[in-house]
Amino acid sequence: MDLLNDWPEPIVPVQSLAESGTSVLPDRYVKPPSERPSVDPAADRGEHISIPVIDFAGLTKGMAEWRATMRLVSDACREWGFFQVVNHGVSVDLVARMRKVWRDFFDLPMEEKRKLANSPKTYEGYGSRVGVEKGATLDWGDYFFLHLLPPSIKDYNKWPSLPTSCREVTEEYCQELVKLCETVMKVLSTGLGLDAGFLQKAFGGEDVGACMRVNFYPRCPQPDLALGLSAHSDPGGLTVLLADDHVKGLQVRRGNAWVTVQPVPNAFIVNIGDQIQVLSNANYKSVEHRVITNATEERLSVALFYNPRSDLPLGPARELVTEERLQLYQPMTFSEYRLYIRKKGLQGKAQVESLKATN
Ligand code: OGA
Ligand code: NI
User: Fold this and answer.
1) Closest ligand to 249 CA?
2) At what angle do helices 63-79 and 166-191 cross, to 10 degrees?
3) What is the DSSP letter of 224?
4) Is 148 in the pocket of ligand 1 (CB under 6 A)?
5) CATH code of the domain made up of 14-354
6) Does residue 230's CB lie within 6 angstroms of at least one atom of ligand 1?
7) Neighbour count for residue 91 (Cβ, 10 Å)
8) Reduced to 3 states, what is the DSSP secondary structure of residue 262?
9) What residue stretches are annotated with the Fe2OG dioxygenase domain (predicted)?
10) Percent over 70 (pLDDT), the chain
11) Are 52 and 254 spatial neighbours (Cβ–Cβ below 8 Å)?
12) Is 241 in the pocket of ligand 1 (CB under 6 A)?
């Protein structure tokens, strides 16, 4: 697809704009009023409602506790599409090393990072926008995107060679996170009343995909006019996000409001992507989320996307289509599905809506 060969306009890393010390947000980043961050109404009333926090220690304590934990996950995915997980088994030290190598990467001189500049063809590398629509309003964030699975598309040459431990730490981190995703997939399958292996099998068994996006949100001169990442739902299967412990930024849609996620130390934020919404026939929700910026602190997050094999047409599980709940979506392969976001950028939930079965 020619359209995806290159960006429609020269890329300006947000970090370089932030470092220029401007006190005025450049026009390209000014969101229309309806998209600008508003005060979180609940937080404003002093009610710190947030997404559920679930302790995965319950998964290692016998059947009754396993099922109780499964119910918490299932409820969270039906109601919020999001939860935070603690006692997930990933070592604190590995998480700290992962944060450090990626902070160090974004601290490298711009010439070094730009050697790995990405194109919209695969998105792999250092980038500053999603979508190729000329003149689009941009988000106040840079990122690094890389492929992990299947092994045939993993290409270390496209990963940073600096800092020197970046590849090794990233590899180790991703292996641990993939194991966590496999566990979550079993819990999610059981929570739908299906076999524990159901979702894994539907994703292609051993042939699943995985990729990673490290987001870097520089300080923003006018946080009330910008977004770090526009509202979107994640197109893939499951996302596990490592966010900063001390800087808030992620907001999750709850009806007409945006609820700010309160970071919990040593937790991951897990959310359902569009492919699991489709497979579960909308029992589990892939919920819109966005990132707000702030004027005083940089923020780093690492999103691991666990995806179905790209060439399998995915539609709602037959077991979840009933007379009361008809088949909501038409099947599509993930490679076809993700072209939409790669061209149009982040568009809330418009894409999954477009799969609605017309019968
Ligand atoms: C994403 C995402 C949230 C964040 O990368 O898809 O939603 O807090 N990131 O960076
Ligand atoms: Ni997301």
Assistant:
1) 1
2) 90
3) T
4) no
5) 2.60.120.330
6) no
7) 11
8) coil
9) 207-308
10) 96
11) no
12) yes
Q: How far is CA 209 from CA 119, 147, 153, 327, 329, in A?
A: 20, 8, 9, 25, 22
Q: Which ligand is nearest to the CA of 303?
A: 1
CA torsion angle for 122, 167, 244, 343 (degrees, to 10)? Answer: 0
* Mean residue pLDDT across the chain: 93
Find out whether the beta carbon of 229 lies less than 6 Å from any atom of ligand 1: yes
The two three-digit tokens of residue 332, written as one number:
């599509």
**Which tokens belong to 162?**
């600096």
22-50 confidence digits (pLDDT tens): 999 999 999 999 999 976 666 666 667 88
Once rounded to an integer, what is the mean pLDDT over residues 144-154? 96
Q: What does the alpha-carbon distance between residue 255 and residue 311 come to, in Å, rounded to a whole number?
A: 33
In this structure, which amino acid lies at residue 124? E
Going from N- to C-terminal start, the domains of the chain cover 14-354
Q: C-alpha 278: how far from its chain's center?
A: 17
Give distance in angstroms: CA of 181 to centre of ligand 1: 17
Strand 268-272, strand 238-243: pairing: antiparallel
pLDDT tens-place string over residues 182-198: 999 999 999 999 999 99
* Residue that has been written with the tokens 């946080």 in this structure: 223
pLDDT(309) > 90: yes
The C-alpha angle with vertex 251 and arms to 247 and 256, in degrees rounded to 5, equals: 155
